[in-house]
Amino acid sequence: MNANANPTRYTLAGRELLALEHSHGFVVDCLEGELWITAAGAAGDYLLLPGQRLRLAGSPRVVVSALRPAVVAARPCCGDSPIRRIAARCTAAVADAIRRWQHAPLAAYPVIRLR
Q1: DSSP 8-state code for residue 6
Q2: How confident is the model over 64-80, as pLDDT tens digits?
Q3: pTM attached to this predicted model
Q4: Which one, 26, 49, 87, 97, has the greatest CB density within 10 A?
């Protein structure tokens, strides 16, 4: 994977949330504003200021919250192989479908999948 892959940018209003699934191996950059990041299974939360970045390793679900208006960029990390990403995406999609089938109220929440 090319380290200079084009990042996906998101503009968040103050107190707006961004849910990221299948984010393993992605890097989140704070371009503007302040971000509060909560990752499933992590020991604590993260606070990112402009110019700071966080590599999401081992966190299948991540919630990014803008403490004030912010711009976020997410891109794949250079160390991920394409076959691993495809396998992880397929496995995660099946697990997500089963989870949503078991918990119907979760299906109402919007989710952004990183590619």
Answers
A1: P
A2: 999 999 999 988 776 55
A3: 0.61
A4: 26
